[in-house]
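Handout, page 2. Input:
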Amino acid sequence: QVQLVESGGGLVQAGGSLRLSCAASGRTRNSYAMGWFRQAPGKEREFVAAISWSGSVTYYADSVKGRFTISRDNAKNTVYLQMTSLRPEDTAVYFCAAGPSTLRLRNKQIDSWGQGTQVTASS
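Output:
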């Protein structure tokens, strides 16, 4: 089973940018869809973005469309989330995830989770 490790979280002012990275290791398949979820205090974990293995299919939550971009580098077994125009409501722990398809990933059918990385956007 694939192991996922996130990095790149931090504290930024509202309107700023961050790029999250998720490195996959340990029995990595070359057919995994990957994506990002987030969980704010007092809220349920919610879908943010997903990308197919080839990178040809992407999905975004309505709340982040136009601001966040998901990408992947299969040679490095890494998926990225470029976040721009960050808002206070984006503050959450962000989790990397892997699953068999983007659709199933959107529906929280997850094979592996990362440990999470904190993103804080302050006003």
